Amino acid sequence: MGNCGVGFAPCRPTDRDELIRLMEGVEDIPGAVMAEGLPWNWETFPDYMDAIESVPHDIDLAVMLAHSPLRVYVMGQRAIELDAATPEDMEAMSALAADAMRAGALGFSSSRSTAHRTKSGEGIPSHGALEEELSRIAAGVATYEDRILEFATDFGYSDKNVPAEIGILKRVVQTSGLPMSLSIALANDRPTLGKEIIGELDAAMADGASIKLQVLGRAVGVHLGHELSLSPFSAMPTYQKVSQLPFEEKIAELRKAEVRQKILDEASGMGDAPGMLTNFANMFALDDALCYEPSTDQSIAARAKAAGKTSEEVAYDFLMQRDGRAVLYIPLTSYAEGNLDEMLALMQHDRTLIGLGDGGAHVGMINDAAYPTFMLTHWTRDRQGPQLSLAWIIKAMTSQSARAVGLHDRGVLKPGYKADVNVIDYDNMRLLYPDVLYDLPAGGKRMVQRARGYAATLVDGSIIALNDEPTGATPGRLIRGPQPAPA
Predict the structure, then answer these.
(1) What is the bridge-based pairing of β-strands 327-331 and 221-224?
(2) CA dist 399 to 293, 354, 403, 478, 482, Å?
(3) Could you tell me which of 316, 289, 322, 288 has the C-alpha nearest to residue 300?
(4) Which CATH number applies to 3-219+341-357?
(5) For 239-290, how does the pLDDT look when each residue is reduced to its tens digit (9 = 90+)?
(6) What is the DSSP track for 462-480?
(7) pTM of this prediction?
(8) Integer Cα distance of 34 and 86 in angstroms
């Protein structure tokens, strides 16, 4: 918890709404869900850790100190306005960072990604941080051994000067002595950028800086649908009116021939320059095969051309399937060549870690909680083309990830290590079709994607799930700080 520099601690009561707005913009979680669901029985970061520990969990949780709430806690409105920190501000943030590590944080996270913005489109507080501020906070983190730094970047999809940016982060790592990981997703029009960044990292590592890239084993994929946050027709006036209706009434209206035609007419008048929602050459129908590495001849545009229809017609009619719950898929990043070959090369590089999935965020658009199952099935069994071994994938998602964040007591099957184990029915493992649940506070919805093939899941030796269903056991605990390997 606490990745990408966003979170809820430390937080003064007067700043709660501001942090909710921040999280609503960056992570696409409805504000009402957080306003009703958060108990706010904390102010300081140590208080926050105690609050988490008091709640039963099925799995273990670990927490990072997030930069934006820390900055708001110290600087107030000046942080929101992206002012530079004063020496006094930096001293206070450094001391609070040390307090957070003492309370058990694994490290510190920040965001330098311009894609991260508040709901109103403004930059988030961490965007105001200069190099000296980052170094001072890192010094506080380094008061305690084996902590980590994690930064969200936008190297892959901005014009940011990569060498200069890596230079800043390299100096933060060198002065603090801490390891750092950087998230990276490759823009579809910049497929070779990963290799360029690795080249810069190689030079940084030669100077003694320990920096790795977090990469996702599939495209950052946006899902579109009538029950989700967006559809290809979200900008159409008629569709916007219909969208205000309860779901079943909405689908009934969309089935009417005159409503369909009006929306399609509005769509045809939107012009030729495609945005994300209307780039039909990079949009795919998610059918029963659940293909997350589709070829370009399967795109909505290609289907429309073959059928002699418009792309809008094909997209509209597909979304009406499954009682209006069909889903379209957009591989938003890392899909320049219409495949995942570039990601295969990146995953296998010794400068990278498998990670980056938005498992609990973007609840109506992205569904990365399914990516571990995707990694196990697609890359080791189902992919048409080069694959990876099952053992390699499991190691990358368990022991390798655990050691990268200072957890040396888990991730391998050995006496004395934590008995956190998935027993899998490998041949029958598969993902199910995405679904929407309305089980968040305030009736909020979230997209889920269940899986089959997990015969049992154990945490600390207790079975928390059996045959893909939870047992209700809650052996999970809050991890406080790095964990040494068993003696």
Answers:
(1) antiparallel
(2) 27, 11, 6, 19, 14
(3) 316
(4) 3.20.20.140
(5) 999 999 999 999 999 999 999 999 999 998 775 556 889 999 999 999 999 9
(6) EEEEETTEE-----B-B--
(7) 0.93
(8) 31
